[in-house]
Amino acid sequence: MVLKTFGWSFAVTALGLVAAVLFGGWSALGIVAILSVLEISLSFDNAVVNAGILKKMNAFWQKIFLTIGILIAVFGMRLVFPVVIVAVTASLNPIEAVDLALSDKDQYQQLVTDAHPAIAAFGGMFLLMIFLDFIFEDRDIKWLSWLERPLAKLGKVDMLSVCIALIVLLISALTFAANAHQHGGAHVDKAETVLLSGIGGLITYLIVGGLSGYFEDKLEEEEEREHEAEEEAERTGKPRSAVALAGKAAFFMFLYLEVLDASFSFDGVIGAFAITNDIVLMALGLGIGAMYVRSLTVYLVRQGTLDDYVYLEHGAHYAIGALAAILLVTIQYEINEFITGSVGVILIAWSFWSSVRRNRALAAAEGKAEASDEKTEVSSGV
């Protein structure tokens, strides 16, 4: 079962790691491995959400999602999107960007370094909004309750996450401008670039969130209509056009899933720029990770159960918050890529271990309760 579901992912992993070694040696292998782990972890909640929706779809639409959908997810968002970001910020066309990355690494690196403040501001703001919206939401399950409980109360203030994000952006832009003046003022205009790019990241987040909300509402409408049609058919005894209704509902499910997948993959793609500027290594790492996310989605659907590691979503979002902070810091200062990657992996590993400990504690408590009940029954029997 595992080999059948994850077979393609294992094969892509092997090919991707070999390609990384051939392209950039063992250091490239390490970067690709870190990117793969981060992509899987940051998109883990994506797999869980996908599985919950995908199991409602018929076999045809499931196949469409796992074939056409994976082309959009892996080749569109994880491979093409990083190239587009580099091309736009470095004023190149995508073909030139790929050609430079492969043929003239030094010139490519210089162009990306010059464009990095724009990429970092855009990505930092996008990731920061994901993190803020998560920690300001009141949730039944809390990981770091001493922190999440008061933040959830603060989250009741309307538009608080947007206000905080804009304040952080303004501070980042002004700090960058001050540092530019101290270094002779040669890059003063970069402060304006940071400000505009950051606002672009914020707008992108709001648009993606709006599209997700729109398709979610459409999906709920279609499911409600289908339910009403079923009830009507039961009352009247007349057959209904099940295929048409199911097809329309499934189509909106498919669109909703693709928008969700795009929004979830934004954090992995943009977070990758905090680890490396090399689009080849980025494409390899994110591509491997995306394959595992899809395989995990299929596994969850076929098993019929969702994952019990309840804190993993928290860990992933804290990792997103850390990547957002790192990206904004790298506007002015350089941070080692392995330190950047390790921060996210450590947070996610910590949340995973916390989930395991929670599950063990719950199992032990249930065992004690059952033992106590049996003891009570024996005593009452005597």
From TrEMBL:
Domain of life: Bacteria
InterPro entries linked to this entry: DUF475 (IPR007427)
Pfam families, A to Z: DUF475
Signal peptide: none
Keyword annotations: Membrane, Transmembrane, Transmembrane helix
Record NCBIfam families: PRK14013.1-3 (NF010613), PRK14013.2-5 (NF010619)
Protein name: DUF475 domain-containing protein
Transmembrane segments: 6-35, 64-95, 115-136, 157-181, 193-215, 241-257, 269-294, 315-333, 339-356
